Fold this protein.
Amino acid sequence: MNKRINIQKTYKLYIDGKFPRTESARYIKWQDSKETTLVNVCRSSRKDFRNAVVAARNAVNGWSSRTAYNRGQILYRIAEILEGRREQFMAELTLQGSAKKQAEKEIDQSVDRLIYYSGWADKYIQIFSRVNPVAMPYFNFSYPEATGVVAATAPEESSLLGLVSIIAPIIVGGNTLVILASESRPLCSITFAEVLHTSDVPGGVMNILTGYRSELLEHFSSHMDVNAILYCGSDPEEIRLVESNSALNVKRPVVYPDQDWSKEKAQGPYHIMKTQEIKTIWHPIGV
Amino acid sequence: MQSGTPTYTRNIDQVNAQERVTKLFSRSIKKESKIVALNTVLSMIDLTTLEGKDSQGKVKQLCYKAAHLHDQFSNLPNVAAICVYPPMVPVAKKALNGTGINVASVATAFPSGMTSLDTKLEEVKTVVAAGADEVDMVISRGKFLQGEYDWVSDEIAKVKEACGEAHLKVILESGELVTLDNVRLASDLAMAAGADFIKTSTGKVSPAATPSVVLIMLEAIRDFYKQTGKKIGMKPAGGVSKAKLAVQYLVMVRETLGQDWLSPDLFRFGASSLANDVIMQIVKQSTGVYQSTNYFSID
Amino acid sequence: MKTEVKTLDFNTDWEYSPALESTDHIHIQEPTDLFISGEFIPGVRGKYFETINPANEEKIANVAEAEKADVDLAVKAARKAYDNVWSKMKPTERGKYIFRIARLIQERAREFAVIESLDGGKPIRESRDVDVPLSAAHFFYYAGWADKLEYAFPGRDAHPVGVAGQIIPWNFPLLMAAWKIAPALATGNTIVLKPAETTPLTAMKLAEIIQECDLPPGVVNIINGGGNTGQALVEHADVDKIAFTGSTEVGKFIMKTVVGTGKKYTLELGGKAANILFDDAPVDQAVEGIVNGIFFNQGHVCCAGSRLFVQENIAENVISKLKERMETLIVGDPLDKNTDIGAINSKIQLDKIKMYVDIGQKEGGSIFQSPCSLPKMGYWHAPTLFTDVSQSHRIVQEEIFGPVLAIQTFRTVDEVIMKANNTPYGLSGGVWTDKGSKIFSLSKKIRAGVIWANTFNKFDPSAPFGGYKESGLGREGGVEGLMPYVNLV
């Protein structure tokens, strides 16, 4: 019997709205738990990260000045496309070791989470904005604005829901992002990049790298043009590195210890506020 | 654009202007500087009576007061001028003969300005012929608010011409112009049209002189001087009845225009009851005792 | 046609006589001890340092210096008060204590103002009209929050953090103490506060008030000392949160120090604000705003408008108006009610300012200084501006923290936004224009935490304050000012 040869997927990086291979031409062999499937994943270098930050920086003005409505629509679009690619994510999640039921639940929750944050796009600003009754003839108001370029490491254990839970609140708030995918479960993250690519997300807004955290965290946390670093994990040494390097340019360090991303409080507007700045504006009231 | 013409706007921010006033008015004027200030204020007063019930007798009494502010106290300066309605000019002129005190007459259908230009010019010529040294005209606020700035400007120019040698003070009636933007525009317009002085108010409309209006007019005078080299005088009128406020205005003049304007030649107060309060303060400063109005003549 | 220059003569015959605020009614403890657990006590090793009046270099008082052991005592007192009293107290009662503090500051306003000017060199008019009333207002504002926190954080429960270590600067000694203490108390934390070494006295006066208020012992502890004392506080293992206002350099050091400890922190750091003046701005008010932006408090203001950008077509005019305005600034005795610019806070700071002025001249900047005579004793610096400078000049890039303004011109909106943001700092910014839509556009594009549109250097307890980028982390004031002192569950 003639067996059809499968077309195997090449897992590439996602930088500036394109899918390049790592400039370093290095790769990581990835095998599933049964050690049957073999995939070559890009081993990103610090230069890939640098390129991604440049792309993110270039995209930040445009993205943060989109209307909140538009950002919400784009997040909704991501959810729609994700829903449509359900099969592919099912395959990858199970390949990465999830039970079928568990994988199904994870996809459901990921879609729901995107829609949840999509709905926040034009509301969190209302919740966290104020008109401040100053004791002078001035109109004074304060509201949240995007911090800027965020570098993040995705949760290691929850490769899709974790990734979405980190990305959505950062992006909905007008930031741009460079995120390092789960090292042990990288497949969904690149497929997720393909979702992003077909969801009207402007190039450079989200950049997804694969590779070794131990190699890249130093650069993620030290880069002087990164405004916030979001670390997911519980390794004390890595946390120390992130916090210490943050001091170089007063980055906003955010640490999410290993956790269950399906729990209720893993979502909410306070997560958006972790990568927001409050701006206060004064103006006289007169004729 | 002509060289020397500023490209900045004349718009005024009301809140910031008020904050500047507050800062200026928080100066603490004590001791020697207070005495100097009070004497200077006295010398800048246009002692004013502008009432329908003014009579020859009333004007004569006021003129005597102008030259004898407080005879118990020597070395007090005289006020700068007496300010009256047109029919009282001859009375005042005669009463003040030899005192060096000027006679100022309001004119141009004061306070409303609501009559024909010809009538206004006739009135001006009459008071000048009767001996008025200074003429206080009102601008046509209706025309100004209608946007007919050229008309307002031409009218001032014609009144100026009718004044001949007499000094022209142009009353903006800021209380009817309402905004500081308008006050600034009217000031610029009046100065360009030939005003020797610009003056806030008739005293018949509330609010009369307010601190922020005075500040904006002083700044207009400063800019006009910078552009043309001409020094225009300033006269707040109405609502300045206390020595403390008058001294605060002096601070404003000092820090906006400097030395040259700290003189009756370029700064006046239009007031009726200010003089006595200033004299009371002077007596208090020299005796150290708080005073009663019973000891100061009212005319 | 070249018109001749018409100058105004501000050197008038009529001069203001000195109007000195009386110092009769003030009382300063000698020596001034540490305030720990509700008592004034000397340091463990009995060491004292002198605090001087920067206007005449005379000693005002000996102040107890806290060493590591004293820091430990203070933190222990705070922990005990937190565990036993303050975290258990009904929020309404907590609020009432804070209201009491506010009232007592108002009642003793004059004493606070005089001591602030004596110890720090700022003009009495500012300490009287700005620092002290705003300090009272801060306590009033946050007192009211104590029993309303559920409305500040919908969907979450706000829990106090624990013991807060707070380190404040010398530019607004009492006001910064208020900014730190009021929200921390309202949210149920206890405090160890360290004022700046050169300006300990008003904070210690505040300690007296806190004692008078019968605030439970240990809820607020105030200790003095320099960098070592501060470091000991930051490093103390039982401090849960650090709140710091000061230089970016020290802020970064604190970030490194707390690495791995899980301590929360907020930082209010340096700035180099752009103050942008368009040709459609109300120019005389803008000039006043520029003066207030850079010369307020001798320029010892982290959010000072130290980089002025003037649209080129009006630059000549604006600079000439500015110079004239500077001539009327009165530099002198901080206790004189007519003083606009007081003494520089310390010799170290004066030397730093002079160094930058020197650098500015060496780098080719054109200098103008207001023609004022400076007293012989004490630390003084004339109001100074530089023209003919660019973004590449050090005096444009670096925070001077003194009365030195660097003026550049610009041509287009894009250019000025680019230059305004061309700095590692992002604390504040100013925009002057009569055009509303331009204000909103620029306010959005300037990357800074506070935007003053047609005004500058305004503060209010209800208005959040804090920086982007290297100007800091977190906000003080307003609802946001509660956030650093709570854990949301």
